[in-house]
UniProtKB/TrEMBL annotation:
PANTHER family: CUB AND ZONA PELLUCIDA-LIKE DOMAIN-CONTAINING PROTEIN 1, ENDOGLIN/TGF-BETA RECEPTOR TYPE III. This is DMBT1 protein. It holds the Pfam family Zona_pellucida. It comes from the Eukaryota. Keywords: Disulfide bond, Signal. Residues 1-109 form the ZP domain.
Length: 116
């Protein structure tokens, strides 16, 4: 566990351990949950489909392509235990592959039209 106070900045770094310097990371989804066993209901999205959902989220410069640094303000779920669990999904891409998911950025899903 990592202990922080409410509204304190929580800094994270994800890194890829590879000898290939042309691989890079993209944060696809990062979700917080009051339970370590359920990341589908009662959760809070920080990043979803590459789109920032939390206004306190920020990306920080990393000198290495294979490391991703970001932060957000710590929070607590209402009426629950004081623990918050994170589950983040990252995508590994070849650097400078402009057709890869890493270069698409935020992808908003289109809503389906309801038929009559």
């Amino acid at each position: 566990p990592y202990y922080v106070s409410i509204d304190q900045n929580l800094f994270l770094e994800a890194s890829l351990h590879s000898s290939d310097p042309l691989l890079e990371l993209f944060l696809h989804t990062c979700v917080a949950s009051p339970s370590r066993h359920n990341f589908t209901t009662g959760t809070y999205a920080i990043v979803e489909n590459g789109c920032v959902k939390d206004p306190t989220y920020a990306v920080y410069y990393s000198p290495r392509r294979n490391a991703l640094r970001f932060k957000f303000n710590a929070f607590q779920f209402i009426r629950s235990n004081p623990e918050v669990y994170l589950q983040c999904e990252l995508v590994v891409c070849r650097a400078f592959d402009y057709s890869s998911r890493c270069y698409q950025g935020c992808v908003k899903r289109s809503r389906r039209e309801a038929s009559s």
